[in-house]
Amino acid sequence: SEYQGLHVGGEGRVHRVMESTLTARDRVGVQDFVLLENYTSEAAFIENLRRRFGEKLIYTYIGSVLVSVNPYKDLEIYSKAHMERYRGVSFYEISPHIYAVSDNTYRAMRTERRDQCILISGESGAGKTEASKKILQYYATTCPVTDHMSTIRDRLLQSNPVLEAFGNAKTLRNDNSSRFGKYMDVQFDFRGAPIGGHILNYLLEKSRVVHQNHGERNFHIFYQLLEGGEQDQLSKLGLERNAQKYHYLVKGCCPRVSSINDKSDWKTVRKALTVIGFHEEEVEDLLNIIASVLHLGNTQFGEGEDGETQITTESHLTYLSKLLGVDGPALREALTHKKLTAKGEEVSPLSFEQAVAARDALAKAVYGRAFTWLVAKINQSLAFKGSSSVIGLLDIYGFEVFQHNSFEQFCINYCNEKLQQLFIKLTLKSEQEEYEAEGITWEPVKYFDNKIICDLVEEKHKGFISILDEECLRPGEPSDISFLEKLEDTLGGHAHFVTHKLANGKTRKAVGREEFRLIHYAGEVNYTVNGELANQSVICQSDNQILSQCFHREEVTTQKRPETAATQFKNSLAKLIEILMSKEPSYVRCIKPNDAKQSGRFDEALVRHQVKYLGLMENLRVRRAGFAYRRRYEAFLQRYKSLCPGTWPNWQGRLADGVATLVQHLGYKAEEYKLGKTKIFIRFPKTLFTTEDALEARRPALALTLQTSWRGYRERAKYHRIRNAVIQSAWRGMKSRRKARRRRHAAEIIRKFIKGFIYRHYERCPENEYFLDHQRFSFLMTLVRNPPKSVLDKSWPVPPPSLTEASEHLCRLCMQNMMRAYCRRIQPEWKKQMEQKVVASQIFQDQKDSYPQSVPKLFVASRLGREFNLKVIQTLGNDKVKYGVAVTKYDRRGYKARPRQLLLTSSFAVLVAEAKLKQRIDYTALRSISVSSLTDGFMVLHVPSEDNKQKSDVVLQCDHVIEVVTKLATMADKKNKVNISQDSIKFAVARGKEAVIDFTSGPELKVAKGKKGHLLVTAPQLNPR
Fold this sequence. Notes:
alpha+beta; 7-stranded mixed beta sheet; nucleotide-binding; ATP binding; actin-binding; microfilament motor activity; IQ_motif_EF-hand-BS
């Protein structure tokens, strides 16, 4: 099979390149119709389709267009493995497939950041719906997805069974025929994951609600509800589980179909409605509408005593008013009377035929608008409002020609005219852009421009739709015949419009008196004007939530005439074309091989009919107007390089030069090819076929060369294996001997160690010398690896007994070395700080309670700032101030506190008050310094009372007493003259007179004069001893 690839891709996946099947073209045809030699022959086109269909190859390209033939059976070409095979592969690197189109579109959206669309068209039964399903399944399987995106993916997939239930039906051509056109946008985020969607529906076949041809059925949902609905639910809806009892379901005489399981499909639809997000109330209202349509069909009319039309089936009318949520009498009057607005409002009874028509019109309107609401609800569940990239899927009828063609066929064929016009325009545009990008001269292509037909239908004031609108709006009762006459008067001279009256003698026989003929791009079609001007009825006062959203009261109250169905369709089609023009299109053309739905049967006449109406020959002619084959240089050179000695086995230069060398060797003529910037263009398929045949002829020689090389390689490999076996044997023996020696040596070491451990307490002897040496070595290595890290680190490993003395010596040397290193690293300022802290420790440690709090606080050079009073400095002369601090001096009499500054120089201390030197104390005259053991800041400087220069002992208080005493003791060299008293300090106030300072502990610091003339100081004791 063509789907079993032979070419290994970049990711290890196996592909079958398109050219690989050309040598078998007589059996399986060509994969691309562009490669047909006789591309203008319709017979050759169909014969290629037939060959491929016979080989179960249902996909063929026309350039980038995919032609798909319905096989009417399951083929093993849609598995996940096939999806992976096509993912990320260049379009022509592998055989044609719907997955190739899907992946190419997806990658173009990701890389080019431009929205894409895939247009799927074909007759009913050609496989359009299945093609759109395969595309959605491919994206759902291969695109990245998260938990939230998984919900969106499920809703996208589950929208299919819901839309099929309400919009598909069994026809003569297809058991699951889509009776509406669908355009779906699938939205993707920047990572390429599906995040939302939107659906537009076109041309729902509402006439099927009230009438079906023989052998056909109504929409699936009616039969699914009757077969699968629970009995309680059916009773509530007033329904019976028998489709034969409903007028709208028996006209086709086909209530059951062997290939359809309505009961199972009902479960699928109910589950899908839940996944999409329908509430139970909404589902109930929706089923009420479905049941009301069946009751409408069973509503019968008869004549009363006065000849007026009346409803004869009251039970159905009762259910109708209940299910539709409308007033019963109002509904009765709406079905049997009509309102005329002419000089006031009048009510006119309907005839029997008019009442039946009004009933059917109501059924069609209710079902049609409920379907529109259903699509809107699905869109609401798929909505994504942020920025996104889009891939659109258009699944719409192909060109249709029946024995009797009504207004619906006219709209379908008009749509296909517009899509054909768009296709030809975009195909020519893409061809021209590729030629210009590759630097190839563009040659204008002659083709049939169907703009003349589109204008015939849609031109303002002169087109078919404008005439239809005008006829509907004119006063009086419009008729089909008057409309036909108006067409003849306005369009009579048009080359693509013919009626019975305007036709010549030969053509007149083929055109009925109530018909007109349009000559479309795909052929001639006769349309009947019967029923073109039919009206419809609406309900605007329903309590049903869905109907209240579908029908608006403004439609009844407004005086404006509504747009005709043709105008509405023209406007929606214009919007669709605008959407498609904004996107980069891809095309899938679906063909059904026979009307009997039999696998393996190929009806040539039917296929020819579809080839014509799909415009495939015109597509091929446009695509073949220039060059039939084009391929990138690397792909062309990789495939055919073996045909030229200059490019085989590998080309080392520029790819363009390699391709030029190759085609010159192959003898290509100048008119047969062109070299672009990145691709080679070959004009004739015959040139490619000759090249492929040459490659096929070359393969035996290549195979022989490969076989010879393989045999030589195999024998050399065998020799190397034998030689390596000998070497490996010798090597393994040597390794084993080395291993045995290592084991013996290890065993000997273990024995020595065990014996040494046993004799470890004896004097050194042969039995323990290995163990003792090992102990010494282990101790020394432990010391090397983990020595003390700092002078404060007192850790040291425990030495063995024989190394105790050496260990102590090493420890001492290590500590000395670390101390020297530490001392060398100390800065002068820090050294001075530490010296002062050492003096403070010697004086105050364990003596004064406030000492521990002073340890972490650094001593400073001065507590007064850097500047001193200029007058004081002048008075001191050459004696520089080394330290200054604010203190409180207590007088000898009365102990009055006076603020002073204590300045220390190198030889004396002075007390300063307001730039005046109050007292000078020479260090030589300083006898001692007294402080208390509590946390107070008092200190007494004792001086000789005999010295006339000194007044008396000095009582000072300072917040930094530890710092002041340390600095003063150091400068005066009185470290040993600092007295610390616990209870009291005596000091001299005059010659022969003394005073006392009493210290006590209390909650807070207090200074007061006692009764005996003592100075009482109370300070909190932080560290009681």
